[in-house]
Give the backbone structure.
Amino acid sequence: MIRRSSPAAPRSAPADRIDLPGHSWGGYLVMAYAAYKYTRSVNETLNADLGKFDMWPALAGFHMPTLVATGRYDINVAPSTAWNIHKAIAGSQWVVFEKSGHLPYCEEPDKFVQVMNDFLGAR
């Protein structure tokens, strides 16, 4: 069974959340990501590397239980892209986290845990 856990937090904060208005304990991750600065050279290097890896042809060869999950507001991997991944993997399961972007484990932790337990428990 998966249980909701929390990232390391400042000592003054409760162990299970960070006090940020409008955020669950995942706000700590948001702060960490926001502190990282991407530069043009980093983006160019990442884009050049991504161009070398086309995984689409390999998806049809996936013959293991697969759960394709997406957040309705994900701007990193659009739900339409996740849907195409789901359609490319025979027998895969599909779930949309309706209140999430790219981090449903932070944005909808209770639903995330339930979805993962349901998926893993069915195996």
Summary: The two ends are 12 Å apart (CA to CA). The first helix runs from residue 27 to 35. The longest strand covers residues 67-71. Residues 41 and 47 are 10 Å apart (CA to CA).
